[in-house]
Specification:
Shape: globular
Number of domains: 1
CATH architecture: 3-Layer(aba) Sandwich
Number of helices: 11
Strand content: 5-15%
Distance between the termini: 39 Å
Radius of gyration: 21 Å
Order of helices and strands: HHEHHEEEHEEHEEHEEHEHHH
Helix content: 25-40%
Number of strands: 11
Strand order of the largest sheet: 1-2-5-9
CATH superfamily: NAD(P)-binding Rossmann-like Domain
Largest sheet: 4 strands, parallel
CATH topology: Rossmann fold
Length: 398
């Protein structure tokens, strides 16, 4: 995509050393391709895991929409990798618990409240509990839908146990619960992308504010999504691992804290950035995606709360921490500013989005929090799904 992480990413060895210095234990890392069944089976034979937290998939909707080759690769990579994990569980770790990262994007934006995976329905006088219909908006999101179906089916026929985590947008650079707790070692920084394929809207807004570029809203900016900071995402995954379901049980957790529109996100970043002495601006650009702008969005998220989940960070403080961590890397971000404007379009073409004020970047820019009015009903907001990709590694009992 021509981009890179806004925060420098240390080598695997340096990250392992830093982790060991903080946590007094060294993770065992096996590098390999999850679509290679031999690799997966060797890993399971060595580790005999009690829990598998599966984050190893391509997390990008735009990447999957570039062309046929990218669409097919994303589907094969994500679906085949998960299938290999499921069969390795059946053959080598049938009592293990799979925590599989899905996405809230699987549901789409139905004109109904969104339950956690299943809902009760009455049709022609009969009632049943069924999977809630998925209405994915990209080939990537459909790959996650197919994953969910495959995991649910494997639990039924193999007697496996799994938690499918429908995760909202994860943001933040600090994962130890608070700024005070976060280690100073830069080798423990998270990756933070800001290009059109692997960067989320909030990442992009923070990076744009740091280098003086306007925050770019896709269309009207009214698309609503669920968000949570990375430290609380770790808390949620830990709760899932520590509270496994029964054998044969497939359960779904909707994992997010609050919902916001993209416009609300931009306004929050603008307010924090202004307070820090930056000069944030907000502008709307042509939306390259095909998605609803105005829609109902009210998802449930009760299961994790029932397990004891408690939010530890608010978005404003997390945005401030992100900006503090990004400011020292101003030049690193500015050198890749050309990747901030999208050119991957859902119709299969490649063309940079234009600014909706008609200036294409040359005209006056709007003040923070006051984006221009747009009278284009087809203009739609950005999809902001994001997931984390990690090397496969065993999870040991504490």
């Amino acid at each position: 995509m021509g981009g890179r992480s806004a925060l420098p990413v240390a080598s695997v060895e340096a990250r392992l050393d830093a982790f060991e210095s903080v946590c007094d234990t060294r993770p065992h890392v096996v590098q390999g391709d999850l679509t290679d069944r031999d690799v997966v089976y060797r890993l399971f034979e060595e580790a005999r895991p009690e829990a598998i937290v599966h984050l190893g998939e391509c997390p990008s909707a735009p990447y999957s929409m570039i062309d046929a080759d990218h669409a097919i690769w994303v589907q094969r990579n994500n679906i085949e990798g998960t299938m290999n994990v499921l069969y390795a569980m059946r053959d080598l770790a049938p009592e293990a618990h799979l925590v599989k990262l899905g996405t809230m994007g699987e549901y789409g934006t139905p004109n109904l409240d969104i339950p956690e995976g299943f809902f009760e329905i009455e049709y022609r006088g009969r009632r049943d509990r069924l999977p809630f219909p998925r209405q994915a908006g990209s080939w990537y999101h459909w790959s996650k839908v197919h994953d969910s179906n495959n995991v649910m089916f494997a639990c039924r026929i193999f007697g496996l146990r799994a938690t499918d985590v429908m995760q909202g947008v994860v943001y933040g650079t600090r994962f130890f619960g608070s700024s005070a707790d976060h280690p100073a070692d830069p080798a423990l920084h998270t990756r933070l992308d800001f290009d059109q394929a692997f960067g989320t809207a909030l990442n992009r807004f923070c990076c744009q504010s740091v280098i003086g570029e306007p925050m770019t809203l896709f269309g009207l900016g009214n698309q609503r999504r669920g968000f949570l900071p990375i430290c609380d995402s770790m808390q949620c995954l830990t709760l899932a691992v520590d509270n496994p379901p029964e054998a044969g049980d497939y359960r779904v957790f909707n994992q997010f804290e609050e919902t916001y529109t993209i416009s609300e996100l931009a306004s929050k970043v603008a307010a924090v950035a202004s307070d820090m002495g930056l000069d944030p601006r907000i502008r709307r650009i042509e939306n390259p995606r095909k998605e609803m702008e105005e829609h109902h969005y009210n998802p449930d998220h009760d299961h994790l709360l029932a397990l004891g989940y408690q939010p530890t960070r608010d978005m404003d403080s997390e945005i401030r921490a992100m900006l503090e961590d990004l400011l020292p890397h101003h030049d690193r971000i500015a050198a890749k500013r050309d990747v901030l404007l999208p050119d991957i379009r859902w119709d299969g073409s490649r063309r940079k989005s234009i600014f909706l004020d008609g200036s294409n970047g040359a005209g006056p820019e709007e003040a923070a929090g006051e984006p221009p009015s747009v009278d284009e009903p087809e203009a739609r907001a950005a999809d902001v799904d994001h997931a984390v990709v990690a090397e496969a590694a065993p999870v040991a009992r504490r």
